[in-house]
Design goal:
heterodimer, A: 196 residues, alpha/beta, Rossmann fold, eight-stranded mixed beta sheet, globular, B: 367 residues, Rna Polymerase Sigma Factor, Chain: A, two-stranded antiparallel ribbon, 10 helices
């Protein structure tokens, strides 16, 4: 699993061999290919960008060009073991609805996102009074695809509000796993494993 | 070649003998596991990668099929058969009805897309091929490629469906009706009995081709290629029109050329029969209108490609198929490619399409 983005490596390490997976926002299929090759996972993908879809299909993966906001309704309920949404939640027009769809389609759902409450972002906003541009949020406000910034505590609140179960939490800082303590302040990135 | 048949057709009639003209490229391996069937479109033929005997033009899909191409005779045993109902050697209205000793004409039974596929299956039986590594088609060829796994779920491992649809829309039928009426309105059509004297309904068929050809292009593509530009005729003022009904505009002369050159290589009755088969095509019909039911339990891998400027079989039609494949739990890929060339894009240079086809087919080869 080397070469995978750190959040994807966490997801890959926690997926049961031989399971069925839907990777929503699968990019060029890096995670799907790793899961297929090392864990015999039956992976499907959904991806918005046609160039990424082409790259994934060229890898021999089954990927459909589509939009998480509108096209997840096409997938039958309970059709995969895991639905995965990595670094895509904050780009959705209706993130809560996308999460509901993920938990309908998959028995469990992995969700990873950059934490907007990380201390460096807080500092940046506090000291400069400008929208932060960081390693994980690299685009300026007017061109970023991230239209729904979210913090770890916001996400936990949504989980509680919707009555979902959290089966796992992982936090990353500087590509290294970091502790749960003060994650909302210290983690750059979070990965959650949810269940209905 | 002649196959014995008989072939039971959707209309209830039985066709015997069934003649199927086909081309092959490459050789069948010992395991008989490398057969790839290419399905041609409405006015296509079996000369997918070889010179057309009438027009002398190169094969119609040599951008995709040939040495070093995604479908490669060095690796694949490639088969392309003229569909029944057509006019390049397979049974059709221009071939002889054994009962009368004269060409069938309009007594030829009305066909369906499924009938064309069943005839291809007869050919595979004859060739000793049990399972296809892949079936590939664009446009009407895509309808066949999509029908293959539905009709013969155990005989095809991968289906590649390009710029196609699972059903003909009212608009599709409407355009075809214009073409058919143009042929039938030609006094030389004579209810299809024009073979004896060879005085064919060329005007009607040419108009049919012209109307259809517009649907294969895009407005943007036409504007880019022709715009409102006039023909550069000697003695004519290029800045003004002739104020007559000659082909002043380049697009007129282009369309007229398309129509006229078409009648040299195509039979008007075949055009009637094949457009009718396409109009009747609705893959979901035998499944109570539920397309997903057609694919339920399929083990075939699917790949669909559409083009953003194709308004004949727009992306929404491919998405409808993808939706059904998802609901059926099928392994499916789909991508909409960008091209200015409308429906015809699938026949034109498209490196992205080639990459996808290559990747999709190679993925099957490793399994």
């Amino acid at each position: 699993m080397t070469g995978l983005r750190p959040d994807l490596r966490i997801i890959a390490d926690n997926i049961a061999a031989g399971s069925r997976v839907l990777d929503v926002g699968c990019g060029d299929g890096a995670l799907m290919a790793a899961l297929r090759d090392s864990r015999q996972v039956r992976a499907r993908g959904l991806e918005l960008d046609p160039a990424n879809v082409s790259a994934a299909v060229t890898r021999g993966l089954s990927v459909i060009q589509g939009d998480a906001d509108t096209d997840l309704v096409d997938y039958p309920s309970d059709s995969v073991d895991y639905a995965i949404l990595s670094q895509t939640l904050q780009t959705a027009r209706a993130p809560h609805k996308v999460l509901e769809e993920l938990l309908r389609i998959g028995r469990q759902a992995f969700v990873s996102f950059p934490n907007f409450a990380h201390w460096r972002i807080r500092m940046s906003l506090l000291t400069h009074g400008r929208m932060p541009v960081t390693r994980l949020i690299p685009e300026a406000w007017y061109e970023t695809p991230n239209i729904h910034h979210v913090t770890i505590d916001d996400f936990r609140e949504l989980i509680a509000l919707r009555g979902w179960t959290c089966d796992g939490e992982w936090f990353l800082s500087g590509d290294q796993q970091t502790s749960r303590g003060m994650a909302n302040l210290l983690a750059e990135h979070a990965v959650f494993l949810l269940r209905r | 070649m002649t196959l014995l048949g008989p072939l039971r057709l959707d209309c209830g009639a039985a066709l015997a003998p069934v003649e199927i003209a086909y081309e092959t490229y490459g050789s069948l391996n010992a395991a008989k596991s490398n057969a790839v069937l290419i399905c041609h479109a409405l006015t296509g033929d079996q000369y997918v990668a070889s010179t057309h005997p009438v027009t002398g033009k190169p094969g119609w899909w040599m951008r995709l099929v040939g040495p070093e191409k995604p479908v490669d005779p060095a690796r694949d045993f490639i088969i392309c058969a003229n569909v029944i109902g057509s006019c390049m050697g397979s049974s059709g209205p221009a071939t002889v009805d054994p009962a009368t000793g004269t060409p069938w004409g309009m007594d030829f039974p009305v066909l369906s897309i499924a009938d064309m596929v069943r005839a291809q299956a007869l050919l595979l039986d004859y060739l000793g091929i049990d399972t296809l590594a892949a079936v590939i088609g664009g446009s009407m060829g895509g309808m066949q490629a999509l029908s293959w796994p539905v009709l013969y779920p155990d005989r095809v491992r991968a289906a590649l469906v390009i710029a196609s649809t699972a059903r003909h829309s009212a608009q599709n039928i409407a355009f075809h009706e214009v073409g058919r009426q143009a042929i039938m309105a030609d006094p030389r059509w004579r209810k299809g009995s024009y073979y004896a004297d060879g005085d064919v309904p060329a005007s009607g068929l040419a108009v049919a081709r012209m109307a259809a050809h517009i649907t294969y292009l895009s407005e943007a593509g036409l504007t880019e290629k022709f715009g409102r530009r006039l023909q550069d005729k000697t003695g004519a003022d290029c800045d003004g029109s002739s104020f007559g009904f000659d082909a002043d505009f380049q697009i007129q002369s282009y369309l007229r050329h398309q129509g006229i050159s078409f009648v040299d290589r195509f039979d008007a009755n075949s055009y009637l029969y094949i457009t009718r088969a396409m109009d009747y095509f609705d893959l979901a019909l035998p499944f109570d209108g539920v397309l997903a039911s057609a694919f339920m339990g399929t083990k075939t891998r699917f790949c669909l490609i559409s083009f953003d400027t194709d308004w004949l079989y727009p992306t929404a039609e491919s998405r409808r198929i993808v939706h059904a494949l998802n609901a059926a739990g099928a392994e499916a890929s789909f991508v909409e490619l960008s091209s200015p060339f409308g429906h015809d894009a699938f026949l034109l240079e498209c490196p992205e399409m080639n990459r996808i086809v290559d990747g999709f087919l190679r993925a099957g080869a490793t399994k």
